[in-house]
Design brief:
Elements lengths: L5 H32 L6 H19 L3 H27 L4 H23 L14 E4 L2 E4 H23 L1 H11 L1 H6 L4 H26 L7 H15 L4 H15 L1
Antiparallel strand pairs: 1-2
Length: 257
């Protein structure tokens, strides 16, 4: 068996980092909802998929670049996640885990089926200006279709980490994840924090989906593979933290590369 060259290994390592950054952003919302609220959000990957089609619709109908779509997706899907928690998840939190799993599985099926009816099962791509561009650094070839979404994902991950670690809201979220009863005793509105966690998880999933759509073709029924990758990142990175998700995402990206 031929031994891979140093240049090939370096290229694979760089590709793994770029993939891992995007996987982190797409997965961190699952880690937050599971780590803070104890909810296994089986519908997580459908919001990743909806993010890609959100960018596609803005590109086709309004000519907006996917980078602009990322910015717009944050408030839109934050609102979607807030409504999801208020209308659906709040009714099942605190009950048997099987009930929440069944409800979220049903939501996943509804969103997937609705997306197939709306966009069919055809595979789509986001054709954005730098998608075909390449940059050569030394002996490495860096496709902008991976570099740009990876850098955007890194920026979003850093902002989310700063939110969780440097703000009162982030400290409240961590307190609810560690001791919800004690958090309620000291005056933290646990229900409001729960809504924020689900909203942030949904928004990060959608923005991560746009980053994935900038790198790979996509179709409504293919969201399941992103759910599998998200669970892998959570398993390797741990629950409730951005930095753990980053390590898990980089590990999964490197293994795939």
């Amino acid at each position: 068996m031929a031994v891979p060259s140093a240049a090939l290994l370096a290229q694979a390592a760089v590709n793994g980092v770029l993939l891992g950054l995007v996987y982190t952003l797409a997965s961190v919302g699952l880690s937050l909802t599971l780590g803070v609220l104890g909810i296994v959000n089986l519908a997580h990957s459908t919001f990743i998929m909806l993010g890609t089609f959100f960018a596609l619709e803005l590109l086709q109908r309004a000519g907006l670049d996917p980078i602009v779509a990322m910015v717009l997706a944050v408030p839109v899907f934050f609102g979607v996640g807030w409504v999801l928690e208020r209308v659906l998840l709040r009714r099942v939190m605190g009950g048997p885990d099987a009930v929440a799993l069944l409800v979220l599985f049903g939501l996943m099926i509804i969103l997937e089926s609705g997306s197939i009816l709306l966009w069919t099962t055809d595979t789509r791509v986001l054709r954005w200006p730098l998608a075909q561009a390449m940059v050569q650094v030394g002996g490495l070839v860096l496709p902008m279709a991976r570099v740009v979404p990876a850098l955007l994902a890194l920026a979003m991950v850093v902002l989310l980490d700063l939110l969780l670690r440097r703000t009162l809201l982030g400290k409240a979220m961590r307190a609810v994840g560690q001791q919800p009863d004690a958090a309620a005793i000291i005056g933290i509105d646990v229900r409001a924090i729960s809504a924020v966690v689900v909203a942030l998880g949904t928004a990060s999933a959608a923005v991560g989906g746009i980053a994935l759509g900038m790198m790979f073709p996509f179709a409504p029924q293919e969201h399941i593979r992103w759910l599998a990758w998200s669970f892998l990142v959570v398993v390797f990175g741990g629950l409730g933290g951005v930095r753990g998700s980053l390590l898990g995402g980089l590990f999964v990206g490197e293994v795939e590369a």
